[in-house]
Amino acid sequence: MKISNRIKALAESQSLQMAARCQELRQQGVDVVSMSLGEPDFPTPAHIKQAVKDAVDADFSHYGQVPGLLSLREAIAGDRYTANDVIVSVGAKQAICHAVMALINPGDEVVIPTPCWVSYSEMVKLAEGTSVFVPTTYDTDYKLTAKQLEAAITPKTKLLILCSPNNPTGSVYSHQELVDLVAVLVRHPQVYVISDEIYNRIIYTGHHESLAQFSELSDRLILIDGVSKAYAMTGYRVGWMICKDKEVVAACKKLQSQEITCATMVAQKAAEAAVRGSQDCVEQMRRIFEQRRDLMVTLAREIPGIHFEVPEGAFYLFPDVSEYYGKGHIHNSNDMAEYLLNDAHVAVVSGSAFGEDNCIRLSYATSEDNIREAMHRIRISLAKLM
Ligand code: PLP
Q: How far apart are CA 190 and CA 154, in angstroms?
């Protein structure tokens, strides 16, 4: 066999697979409404586009420093951190992957509450670590409790990966919930934490509670953020990690230097314009997401047999559709996603991709017209099953 076992063991991203299926059907002339994509549908704000054009003209076309442009890292570091704590990578995805690769040895355990973003466990696999999935439920708003965390930690635990606001559930940890988790982590000083806060500016609860506020954790926290979601810049591929542990930063820099040298320079200039510029564009998009969230929730409540937590952040609804299992040919979330694609012509992502087979994920990063149309079609298709 040509292909390494390491890569053979990796799963394909189900959300990208669904996007490809959607594209195929559209090419056959089928009018598919996509609720599967995890990216804002807005254009990148004008001042950011101007910055990238200026960067091209100013010849930001050579290799840069491995951890990223100093001026960008200074902007990211703010008051709490220094530029030396920041590494800019090709998307938050790469920053997370580097952190996992830097920390995990074969056999190390990584605690991952589920439902979770599709890529964490695949990254752990690449590092030959062991993912310890901790299922969270509808009853706890899909959030990890202190008790669950305590029970999941063993002498082999090296890392916890937490995501708030969460993809796919839209759950947001409150200050008290984080206090409770930190109290557990303080008792286990060997456990590092990757806090994926990529959706921190898309929040409907007032303000974001970051794990960065807990000084007890600061020497083993790896904070993840980026420009993809907040500034509608998914294709620019700029994200970063912030970490005060110099050894971890040095390890990630070493990996980055051998792998990519540095993130694309003109894209970094665009990211700098995003972070340093007016944040009004972020608030405008956030408000629109909030209106769409409200519309989704209203329309979803009209569909019998599904239940969900009202999302408090990000742009996903994660309804439990398991009441329909056993009806027609539907036995799991993959069947449900396939049925909705073929019958309603609505693309969704099956919950199994996120470790929760009772649910499907609907992205509302799309127009209100698309949301209305998709929810109408889903309602009709599900009614046929009853
Ligand atoms: N973390 C979560 C929870 C995400 O949903 C995503 C993208 O879908 C990422 C990280 C990666 O973001 P980026 O585009 O910066 O690589």
A: 10
Cα separation, 21 vs 36, whole angstroms = 11
Q: Are residues 17 and 76 in the same domain?
A: no
pLDDT digits (tens, 9 = 90+) for 152-168: 999 999 999 999 999 99
Total domains present in the chain: 2
Q: Probe ligand 1: pick from 16, 44, 117, 264, max atoms within 8 Å of CB? A: 117
* Residue 92 CA, ligand 1 centroid: distance in Å: 6
d(CA 50, CA 55) in angstroms, rounded, equals 9
Give the closest residue (by CA) to ligand 1 atom 12. Answer: 92
Percent of the chain topping pLDDT 90: 91
Please give the model's pTM, rounded to 2 decimal places. Answer: 0.96
The whole domain housing 242 covers: 48-276
> Which tokens is 190 given?
């060997």
CATH label of the domain that carries residue 341: 3.90.1150.10
CA of 196 from ligand 1 middle (Å) equals 8
| Ligand 1 centroid distance, CA of 164 (Å) | 12
